[in-house]
Amino acid sequence: MVTITFVDSTGQSRSVAGEEGSTVMEVAIKNGVPGIDAECGGACACATCHVYVADEWVERLPKAEPMEEDMLDFAHDVRPSSRLSCQIRLRADIDGLVVTTPAKQG
Q: What are 89's strand-pairing partners?
């Protein structure tokens, strides 16, 4: 299991665990994490699972693919650490990942 800490826009955090190979978005939905709408169900066809990856984790994740970068154009308040949580796969080496959900989704 891989643990992810979700921090909401007010600073409240919640840690949940997910299976390796699943996505951050899938774990959020399965555990009722607020702030992840996931309207397209993880198809990278919207920006409603937008998160900010904590600075210390940005370089440890694979770079965003062009399709994800295109979808981030539709997200609200995009920052250098912005990612779509449907595109971040859980691996053992990212156990402890911290992401923050924006105040609103795109």
A: 23
Tell me the pLDDT tens digit for each residue of 57-96.
999 999 999 999 999 999 999 999 999 999 999 999 999 9
**What's the CATH number where 70 sits?**
3.10.20.30
The alpha carbon dihedral of 20, 33, 81, 3 has a sign of negative
φ and ψ of 35, to 5 deg? 95, -5
- State if pTM tops 0.90: yes
Into how many domains does the chain fold? 1
Range of the domain at 90: 2-100
